[in-house]
Design goal:
about 150 residues; alpha+beta; Alpha-D-Glucose-1,6-Bisphosphate, Chain A, domain 4; seven-stranded antiparallel sheet; 4 helices; globular
Length: about 150
């Protein structure tokens, strides 16, 4: 087992239509306004940017994200990541009843030296940290969609 490799999945059931959810998720530069753990987003060009995140545990992750797939018809947003974490992340947004289901998937390999050294004893805490971040993101997106 590679202790520095993670596969995350989250499902967000949201009361807004898929088009509205997709539009909010594709505006990554707005994430810090509604997702507390996404501290900074800076665009480099039309397909690339930098993101700094920090959840409950006392460390920041600095990432470079590059658009890999943007398909509004299929509801898919996918990026590749490098920096403190390499891999990819994907949102897939579809209809669910009167609202939407946003499926988040991420394959991440940790590159940050401190987190690599703590890989075995820290793994449960790192996974819990991610769950807390995703829970807060869903709450933030709900509030953001209601305010729009």
């Amino acid at each position: 087992m590679d202790w520095n490799r993670y596969h995350f999945r989250s499902l967000w059931v949201l009361p807004a239509p898929p088009g509205e959810v997709y539009a909010a998720l594709e505006r990554v530069e707005d994430y810090p306004r509604w997702w507390p753990q996404v501290r900074e987003v800076h665009r480099i060009d039309g397909a690339t940017g930098t993101v700094r995140v920090r959840s409950f545990l006392p460390y920041d992750l600095a990432l470079t994200v590059r658009q890999a797939r943007r398909d509004p018809a299929a509801g898919v947003l996918e990026v590749s990541t490098s920096g403190d974490i390499g891999g990819w992340a994907r949102w897939t947004v579809g209809a669910a009843g009167a609202g939407s289901l946003a499926r988040y998937e991420q394959v991440a390999e940790v590159h940050k030296p401190l987190l690599r050294r703590l890989a075995v004893p820290g793994r449960p805490a790192f996974r819990a940290n991610h769950r807390l971040m995703m829970r807060a993101g869903r709450r933030g997106l709900l509030a953001h969609l209601e305010a729009v």
